[in-house]
Every structure is written in structure tokens, then in C-alpha cells.
Design brief:
Strand 12 and strand 13 form a beta hairpin. The strands form 3 sheets. This protein has a 6-stranded antiparallel β-sheet, sandwiched between helices. A 5-stranded antiparallel β-sheet has the order 11-10-14-13-12, sandwiched between helices. The protein has a 3-stranded antiparallel β-sheet with strand order 7-9-8, with helices on one face. Helices cover about 55% and strands about 10% of the residues. It is elongated. Helix 38 packs antiparallel against helix 39. The protein is of the alpha+beta class. The chain is built from 40 helices and 14 strands. Among the domains are: about 55 residues, no CATH class; about 160 residues, Beta-Lactamase (2-Layer Sandwich), CATH 3.30.450; about 110 residues, no CATH class; about 325 residues, Catalytic domain of cyclic nucleotide phosphodiesterase 4b2b. Bound molecules: zinc ion (ZN). The site of zinc ion has 6 residues, from helix 28. One of its GO terms (molecular function) is metal ion binding. It comes from Paramecium tetraurelia. Its cofactor is a divalent metal cation. It is an enzyme of class 3 (hydrolase).
Length: about 1050
């Protein structure tokens, strides 16, 4: 139950008016807002029933009724004897002293809730012992105990509404949370310095909490690299974890497709969990409530299997939480590990207080982010901005909940001298009066979940007490101001994070970089001579002088700062002299607060307007107005976000590949367009000329000495003597089982009869209605297929054979069934495309184009080194169709024949890997702009679409389930290995990435990269266009990439593993 945004807006307007007209007190206003923020059921229901257009009056009445009811409940609660609900700390401390004691001591004096919690914990312990599989209970009794146990855990972890209004949450776990930043020995309460030490202690807590936001911004800066790799990202995640909760490592179990896998950050590996272990993990998980955070006590071994699989034994502390992954419905058990026992870091307490103060969802959100990022980044190319946006969100939510650490910290420090009570409060008039009456000092920490500290023996008439009190109040105000600032900054930053055509640098008043809105593009770096190494942030502060090498920018900044100091103007100033970049100086209350430099690549005017609008919003004091303004701004730019995340994905991708050293030596290099590859080579060779490079290549060790060289030319292949087999057209008919031809799962590898394979080709054509619609000649088709099979199979290629041709045909047929494809592609083009799939590799030599060119083959000569294989496949097909006995398309008109020929040639030429990136880039940029220039209106669009279909279908084997995908991978690698050997024999340059593919770990690594960089983006783009029609392939591909990674790790030779660890 969640009211709509319009309900919220109406609610805030009505409540503000009620308060302005004194019908409700400010405390009642904040009670209402607080209850709505934490989505209290009654108020949500009330809001849903009483709001909407013209219902302001009704809502006002309902709100007043609601408040009256609340008041009654508070009175009733107060009349009850044990009405004050204490935090569980007392329980925890008592337990720490006497962990095995069963009855709660002094139960009459102890608050009821605490006593109940102790009982519940102990009862749960007893239950667990009996549910344990070694127990002798009969299954029926055991079942009942399990039910009882889960009921208890449900009761104790969910928000327990003790008397109708309490937002207090019970804690369910045996953790003993204690702040220990100041040891009690250090502080003797008789010591005169104790006040000073307490004041200092509180100040330190404040400083440490402030470092959450700065640390988070550093995490953000680390992400701002255009060529960010998976390894960088993984380091950034660990850094984030350290910054936020001071944890060292994490482990997660993930349950998908009925199997459990475990990921460990300590060595960044993902492994399968054996079925037996998985069963025990599942059993143990039954006792763990979702979103509730548990601390594992290494001595107690409560979850032996989970602990063993996580290897928790090496860690001082481990906390776990269970949740479902939002997007994918995977069940996840997430574990955080702390290596040492150091408790001085207050940020560690986040986890311990999460259940108690009800921010376990925020902690889970961090865990979700880590899991999702790891599993996403492992399988796909990523844009750092996508993660930066989420890092901002996480940082701000941790800043918000750090309030509770402040409360706990202050309490801990004060408890050295005073008796301190902590209480959940409501800011009602009566509450405040009641607190005033009592003889103690209260400090209220306002929040949607407010807390009051009651310091019993603090005497404000005593000067020292008074001073300390002032310190606390000041720290609290400073902290509130800081959190507000963080919110403002975060909103500001997030806007720029989502703006593609500008680049923002934010500096503090010391001139140190604190924020960068996106990775700096190469062109900007060059144009303005900008130096920025994000990794430097880990060791040093980066100043504007380090970043801008161009004097004009530095002097511009310095002159402006000088002006500000002299003029003392209370506003943002901007330098408009240079339209390419602007400098904004931040001056608040006559105080210089730092400056911002924005580079505009486009749309400077629009951005400036946004900037000014944002600044005005930030200056208003009305929180509500501000929130609304931010909301509309947010909505306004929301649409842009998706576009920006994906805009020119492939183009960026190419740039990124360009920067990656490994690429030139991997199979991916094959796919990089010629001109870009030569750029890479050029750069890599420090500006040596191509001629010089060629000479160097001759001298390289892998070139076989000339005397061993054979004469190279056409006769390098062993031709397989294959008889032309007779195909019986009478057997051409559609079988019942052919319905599987309409599914992606169809697997050609299970067929061994060639008659059956031919029949399947016929069946696909028949099922599409082409046989009758275009009057296809069955006799000629039979002949055609007989010749086609022979031409495909004559070299005994393990991959590029008749099976592959049929598989590509079937996959094209599958894709063309989807609604979006039918919307654009007419019957004739569909038939032409399906037949292109069948014929696209006919007469393949089992070697790559590079080989064909380097070996000076006939084909390369004939086609001038330009797509020799693809031109040959297309030409062979057309040549065959010229033979009247094979031309099954002989009923087509002259125009139709021409059109068929054109579609066939275009499609087959698109299967050259050299045009992969161009095709993907062109297709992406064409489908982006669906509003102003709808897709599919001309021949060019359709050429791109069918090209995409054939090129994607060419990788159908890889997109099948891993068991099948692996077979296709092994087949193609067999061809590659054979090529490498042959290159050696012929004395032509041996393609480096084809080396050692017979070694499993090398092949696995090559496949991982190939699928992640080439195959998946292709399927992903087409799947987006087809509205999710190809989702199964994406799931399969993700699984395949992870499976190859597991194989890689499992087969990595010992020496290489050691080498990697040393690095
Ligand atoms: Zn192919």
C-alpha cells in the first residue's frame, strides 16, 4: 500500500496550511510527516481514502480525526505501567555478562520488553538445538518446532506494535552492540579533565561521521575513468565498503536456476556449491529472516554450512543478511567480513544498529548494490556513470542513518559520567511537557524516528555540565547542517552526473577536487590540457593546479577568487567571458566556500539555466518546496538518463577497447574496424611507421625461418572427397515434431541424418508458407541442398559446416517470428533473410579472413583482400542458383530475383566480423531516435535490421544453454588452433590470440572476453529492439560467461595463479 505522488503533494499542502492556521501544532505536523515517511499503515490508508482532486476539505477532517485518535492512544499507553520502551542495549549488556543464564534477573525492575527479548532469544536457542538434524525428535514434532521458531522470528523481527503507535523495533540476534571508541579506563569520572575528554570524544564522533560523505565522494572519483575495467571496479567496491562500514571482504551466495553459487571478494572468484552443501545452506537459511541482519558468533557455530562455505573462520566478525535481488528474483545471502577486532571505528556499528533502529533496508541496499554490480560487471561492458549514480544514493542514505550512530556515540561518551536513558519519543505537546517535568536533562534528536537522551544527573546550574551540554547541542546543530549540505550537494551532483554534454569539476575552498561529474573525454583532455588520474585520490589530494595545465584556466580561477575576497558578494559568480567553460564561485554568508568549473560541449545555455534554477531552490528554506522543485527537476531530466546511459554505447565501447592493452592480443581485435586497429598498433609501437612495424614483425621470433616456408597459394587445404548425395524431394514434409523449429532451444547437434537436416530446411520454408506463396521448386530445392551440403562440408570444418548453416537459418526464422520483426519485414524479405542464413558460410575454408589475406589465397586476390570469405559465400550461393537444376527460386519475377540477390549479398557481407562494430553502432544510433525518425521506413533501415538478425543468429550456438554453447565454442576453437599451426607451417604471421587455445584455461579466458565484449552486446541490442523477445539468450549468455570464468579459475596452472596473486 503506497499512496501516489499526488497524494503526498496534497498531504503536504494540507498539513502546512493546518499548521499555518494554528489548527495543529508544529509537533503534530512533524508527527504526521514522520508517520507518513515511515509509511505507517493507518496514515497511508487514510491518505488513500481521502485524497484526490477536490478532496482537500475531506483530507483536512481525516487528518484531524487521525491526530485525535493518536492522542487517545498515547494517553492510554501512558496509563499503562511499563510504558517506556527501552532500547535493547540493556539486554545485550546483561547477556554479555551472563550468556548462559536462563531467567531474566530482576524482572520486575527490568522493562517488560527487554525481559521478553531475553526470553525469546533463549527460547530460540533451545528450539534451534532441537531442530538440529542430530536431534532425536520425530519428524512431525520437528516440523512443529520449525514452525514455532519461524513464527517467533517473524514476531520479533517485524515492526512490533506494542501499543498501537510505537515505531520501535525489537532486535532479533544475539549481537552485543557496544560503542567502544573511548575506553572506560581512559576516563575516570573523578578526573577534572573528564569534561574535556567527553567534549573531545563527541567532536571526534562528529568528524568521523562527516568522513562518510567525503569517503563516498572519493569512491565516486575513483569511478571517473573512461577506461574503467572490471578489476578497477572491483577495487572501488571494496574501497566503498571500507569507507561506509569499515568491512574488509564480502561473500555472497546466489540462488538461481535451482543452483547455488558462492562469490568471494577475497579472491574475486565465483564457484558452484555442491548439491549436498546447497541443501544444508537451504536448511540453515530457513531460520534467517529476510532483511534482518545477523551477526555470526564464530564460537557458537549457529550456521555451520554457511560459515564453512564462507570460510568465516579467518575473520573476527561476520554479519549476514538474506534478500531477493530486485530485478532478477534471485535469492541472495550476503555476508560482510571484518578482518580484525578493532572496534574503534564507529562506522562498524552501522551493521550492529541496523535492526534496532530499523535501517536494515539501507544496509541491504548496499549489499544489493555490491551483488548486482559484481554479477553485472562480470558479464557485460559497463558505463561507470551507471554505478556512480548508485554510489551517490548509497552515500546519502548512509549519511542520513549515521544520525543514529551520533545518538549512540553521544550516549556512550556521556555514560562514563552520567546515567543516560535513551527513549523513543514523539514530539507532541504532552510528551514535551512530561519531559520538562522530570528532573533530568533531555536532548532530543529529531528524525522520522526521533530519539531522546535523558541524562539523569546532569545539572545545568553546574558550569561544567552546562558547558558540556552546550557542546552537545552545538555538535548536533553542526551535524544537522552538515547533513543538509550533503543532501543539497548530492542533488546538485546527481543532476550533473546525468548531463552528457557538460563536465563539472567541484573544488572545496582549499582548491581540492571533491567531485567530477563524468570521465573526462579524450578530446576535452587534449583541448584544455587536463591531467586527471583518479587513482591519485587514494594517496593525495588533487588540486586545481594539478588538473589544469593551462594557465588561462588557473589564472581565471585565481582572479575570480581574488575578486570574491575583495568584493564580498553573497552570490554565485560566473565568468562568462569564455563560453567554453565557466567558473562559479560559491560564497555563502560572505564566506568563500569553493568553486566549480564547468566545461560545455553543447547546450551551454540550457545547462546554465538549470544551474541557476538549482541554486535558487537550494537557497529556499522551505524543505517541502525544495523537495518539490527537486522532484520536478528530477522528472524533467529523468527521460534523459536512459538515453545518456546508453547513448553511443558502442562508440564509447570502441574508445574503451582502444585503451585496453589486452585487446590487441585477443580475439576481440578481429572485430575492431581496420582503421581503429591500425591506430592501436600505431600507438603501441610508439609512432613507428607501418613499414617499420612490418619489418619488426619479420624479425619476431614466431616467424618460421624462410627455408621452412612452403610455397603458399591455393592448395593449402586438404580437400575432403565427398560424394554428392541424392536428396529425395518426396520426403519433404512437415513433421509434428517440427514445432520445436519455432523455438530458440532447437539444437541441430542432435541430428545425424543428412536427409533429416535437408527436411528441416524444407520444413522451415514450408512453415513460413514460402513454398506455395513463391511457388518454390521442390525438385530444385532438393538438388540445391545436396550441392550446398557438399560445399559446406568438403573441408571437414568442425564449426563452419552445414550444421552451422542450418542453425543460423533456424535462428533467423525464430527471430523473424517476433512481433517487432513482422511489423517491419515483409514476407519476401523474410524469406530472403532466412535463405541468407542457410547459405551465409557456404564453402567456408575454416580459416579467418586474416589467414586468407596473409596466405595470399586465391580468394583474397579475387576480392582484393576485402571480406574475401563473405564475398565468396555470397557469390557461391548466387552461382549455384544460376544453375537451372538448382534454382528452386525459378518462379520469382525478374524484379524479385534482383531484390533477393541484393538482400542476400547485403546480409552475408554483414557477417564479416570486421563490420561488427560499424553495424552495431549504426543500428544503435538508428533505434535511439524513435520519436523524430521512426525506424523501418526505408530500405536502409531494413538492411540494417536483417543484417543484425543474420549477424546475431551467426552466434546462435554461443547463446544456447552452456552445455550446448560449450560444444560450439570447442568446435570453433578447434578450427582456430588448426589455423595457428598452419600459419606456423606456412611461415606466415601467427595470429597471437589463436595461440594455445587447446589449453582449457586459455580458451576459457578467450571465450569469457569474446562473449562479454562481442556476443552479448549484439544479443542485448537486438533484444532491446525486440522488446525482450530474446531474453532467454541473454540469460544463457550471462550464465555462459560465468561458467567460462569458473572453468578458467579451476584450470589455471599453479604458477600462473601465484603470479597473479603476487601482482
Ligand atoms: Zn557463420
Amino acid at each position: 500500500m503506497d499512496p501516489q505522488l499526488s497524494h503526498y503533494t496534497q498531504f503536504f499542502i494540507v498539513v502546512t496550511n493546518l499548521c499555518k492556521t494554528n489548527q495543529i501544532t508544529p509537533e503534530q505536523k512533524s508527527l504526521l510527516k514522520g508517520n507518513l515517511t515511515r509509511k505507517e499503515e493507518k496514515i497511508c490508508r487514510m491518505l488513500m481514502q481521502n485524497s484526490g482532486p477536490g478532496k482537500e476539505m475531506q483530507l483536512r477532517e481525516a487528518l484531524l480525526d487521525y491526530l485525535a485518535a493518536q492522542n487517545k492512544q498515547i494517553q492510554r499507553r501512558r496509563s499503562h505501567k511499563s510504558k517506556t520502551v527501552h532500547f535493547m542495549k540493556d539486554v545485550a549488556e546483561q547477556q554479555e555478562k551472563q550468556p548462559e543464564v536462563v531467567p531474566p534477573q530482576e524482572s520486575s525492575a527490568q522493562p517488560l520488553a527487554s525481559a521478553a527479548a531475553v526470553m525469546i532469544e533463549q527460547l530460540t536457542g533451545v528450539l534451534h538445538k532441537h531442530i538440529d538434524k542430530h536431534s532425536l525428535l520425530v519428524p512431525e514434532d520437528k516440523e512443529k518446532l520449525i514452525q514455532l521458531s519461524s513464527l517467533i522470528s517473524k514476531l520479533t523481527t517485524e515492526q512490533v506494535d506494542l501499543d498501537g503507535v510505537s515505531p520501535f523495533r525489537f532486535r532479533y540476534s544475539s549481537e552485543n552492540s557496544r560503542l567502544a571508541e573511548i575506553s572506560e579506563k581512559d576516563l575516570d569520572s573523578s578526573d577534572e579533565d573528564v569534561y574535556e575528554k567527553m567534549a573531545k570524544g563527541i567532536d571526534e564522533i562528529y568528524k568521523e561521521l562527516k568522513s562518510i560523505f567525503t569517503g563516498n565522494l572519493h569512491t565516486h572519483l575513483l569511478l571517473m575513468q573512461e577506461d574503467i575495467s572490471y578489476e578497477n571496479l572491483y577495487q572501488v567496491l571494496k574501497f566503498l565498503l571500507k569507507i561506509l562500514v569499515d568491512a574488509d571482504e564480502f561473500t555472497f551466495f546466489i540462488h538461481r536456476d535451482k543452483e547455488w553459487e558462492v562469490y568471494q571478494s577475497s579472491n574475486d572468484s565465483i564457484k558452484d556449491v555442491t548439491p549436498e552443501e546447497a541443501q544444508r545452506v537451504t536448511d540453515e537459511l530457513a531460520y534467517i529472516r529476510p532483511f534482518c541482519i545477523y551477526r555470526i558468533d564464530p564460537k557458537q557455530r549457529q550456521y555451520p554450512q554457511i560459515e564453512d562455505t564462507c570460510k568465516t573462520i579467518g575473520y573476527a566478525q561476520t554479519s549476514i543478511v538474506k534478500f531477493q535481488l530486485q530485478l532478477k528474483n534471485y535469492e541472495v545471502l550476503f555476508c560482510l567480513h571484518w578482518a580484525d577486532k578493532d572496534k574503534k571505528n564507529i562506522k562498524r556499528k552501522f551493521i550492529n544498529y541496523a535492526n534496532m533502529y530499523g535501517f536494515n533496508k539501507d544496509v541491504t541496499h548496499l549489499a544489493q548494490f555490491l551483488v548486482e554490480t559484481i554479477i553485472t560487471a562480470k558479464v557485460q561492458f559497463f558505463n561507470p556513470l551507471r554505478f556512480a549514480d548508485q554510489v551517490q544514493d548509497i552515500g546519502i542514505s548512509f549519511m542520513r542513518i549515521s544520525r543514529f550512530l551520533l545518538v549512540e556515540g553521544i550516549e556512550k561518551v556521556l555514560s562514563i559520567k552520567y546515567e543516560v536513558d535513551k527513549e523513543q519519543t514523539f514530539s507532541t505537546d504532552e510528551n514535551i511537557r512530561r519531559l520538562k517535568e522530570a528532573s533530568c536533562v533531555k536532548i532530543e534528536l529529531k528524525d522520522s524516528n526521533p530519539v531522546t537522551l535523558r541524562i539523569k544527573d546532569m545539572d545545568l546550574k553546574n558550569e561544567q555540565d552546562q558547558h558540556l551540554y552546550q557542546v552537545i547541542i552545538q555538535i548536533q546543530e553542526k551535524y544537522d547542517g552538515y547533513v543538509k549540505l550533503c543532501y543539497e550537494k548530492s542533488a546538485f551532483y546527481k543532476y550533473f552526473l546525468r548531463t552528457t554534454d557538460s563536465l563539472l569539476f567541484d573544488f572545496n575552498k582549499q582548491g581540492e577536487l571533491i567531485f567530477l561529474s563524468r570521465p573526462i573525454s579524450k578530446s576535452l583532455k587534449e583541448r584544455y590540457n587536463i591531467n586527471f588520474d583518479p587513482k591519485a585520490i587514494l594517496y593525495n589530494k588533487i588540486s586545481y593546479q594539478d588538473i589544469f595545465a593551462q594557465n588561462s584556466i588557473i589564472s581565471n580561477i585565481e582572479v575570480n577568487i581574488q575578486n570574491i575576497h575583495e568584493n564580498r558578494r553573497n552570490q554565485y559568480l560566473s565568468n562568462l567571458e569564455n563560453p567554453q567553460f565557466e567558473i562559479f564561485l560559491k560564497v555563502v554568508d560572505n564566506d568563500f566556500k569553493g568553486f566549480t568549473v564547468i566545461f560545455h560541449e553543447n547546450e551551454a545555455r540550457r545547462l546554465k539555466q538549470y544551474f541557476m534554477a538549482l541554486k535558487i531552490d537550494n537557497m529556499t528554506n522551505d524543505v517541502q518546496k525544495e523537495a518539490e522543485a527537486n522532484k520536478s527537476l528530477e522528472e524533467d531530466i529523468q527521460k534523459q538518463i536512459l538515453i545518456q546511459y546508453n547513448k553511443h554505447q558502442t562508440f564509447k565501447f570502441l574508445n574503451q577497447l582502444d585503451e585496453t592493452q589486452d585487446v590487441a592480443n585477443s580475439m576481440i581485435a578481429l572485430f575492431i574496424p581496420e582503421n581503429e586497429l591500425s591506430q592501436i598498433r600505431h600507438r603501441k609501437t610508439d609512432g613507428r611507421s607501418p613499414e617499420q612495424q612490418n619489418k619488426d614483425m619479420q624479425n619476431d621470433q614466431w616467424i618460421i625461418p624462410p627455408q621452412k616456408q612452403k610455397k603458399i597459394g591455393s592448395s593449402v587445404y586438404v580437400k575432403c572427397q565427398l560424394q554428392l548425395e541424392t536428396v529425395d524431394a518426396n520426403q519433404f514434409k512437415v513433421n509434428e515434431s517440427d514445432s520445436q523449429l519455432d523455438l530458440f532451444e532447437f539444437n541441430i547437434l542432435v541430428l545425424d541424418s543428412s536427409q533429416e537436416k535437408h527436411r528441416i530446411v524444407y520444413s522451415i520454408l514450408e512453415k513460413n508458407g514460402f513454398i506455395s506463396q513463391y511457388n518454390l521448386n521442390k525438385q530444385c530445392l532438393a538438388q540445391f541442398l545436396s550441392v550446398l551440403q557438399k560445399k559446406y562440408n568438403r573441408r571437414n570444418n568442425s564449426f563452419h559446416n552445414y550444421d552451422h548453416g542450418i542453425a543460423v537459418m533456424q535462428s533467423s526464422h525464430f527471430m523473424l517470428q517476433c512481433g517487432k520483426a513482422k511489423q517491419f519485414i515483409d514476407d519476401f524479405r523474410r524469406m530472403s533473410t532466412i535463405i541468407s542464413g542457410l547459405c551465409h558460410d557456404v564453402s567456408h575454408t575454416g580459416r579467418t579472413n586474416i589467414f586468407m589475406i596473409n596466405s595470399q589465397s586465391k580468394l583474397a586476390t579475387r576480392y582484393h583482400d576485402s571480406s574475401p570469405l563473405e564475398q565468396h559465400h555470397a557469390a557461391t550461393t548466387i552461382f549455384m542458383l544460376k544453375d537451372p537444376s538448382l534454382n528452386f527460386l525459378n518462379s520469382l519475377s525478374k524484379e524479385q530475383t534482383q531484390q533477393f540477390r541484393r538482400v542476400l549479398i547485403d546480409n552475408i557481407l554483414y557477417t564479416d566480423i570486421k563490420v561488427h562494430f560499424t553495424l552495431l553502432k549504426d543500428f544503435e544510433s538508428r533505434i535511439k531516435d524513435e520519436v523524430t525518425k521512426p525506424f523501418g521506413t526505408g530500405d536502409d533501415d531494413l538492411k540494417l535490421l536483417t543484417g543484425m538478425i543474420i549477424h546475431t543468429a551467426d552466434f546462435n550456438g554461443g547463446a544456447k544453454v552452456f552445455e550446448i554453447s560449450r560444444i560450439w565454442s570447442e568446435r570453433v576453437n578447434k578450427e582456430f588452433s588448426a589455423q595457428y599451426d598452419e600459419e606456423g607451417r606456412l611461415g606466415i604471421p601467427q595470429t597471437p590470440f589463436l595461440k594455445d587455445l587447446d589449453k582449457l584455461h586459455i580458451m576459457a579466458k578467450s571465450e569469457m572476453g569474446f562473449f562479454k565484449v562481442i556476443v552479448r552486446p549484439l544479443w542485448f541490442t537486438l533484444n532491446t529492439f525486440f522488446d525482450g523477445f530474446l531474453q532467454q539468450s541473454i540469460t544463457n549468455l550471462d550464465n555462459t560467461i560465468i561458467s567460462w570464468e569458473k572453468i578458467y579459475h579451476a584450470n589455471l596452472p599453479k604458477e600462473e595463479r601465484q603470479q597473479q596473486q603476487q601482482q
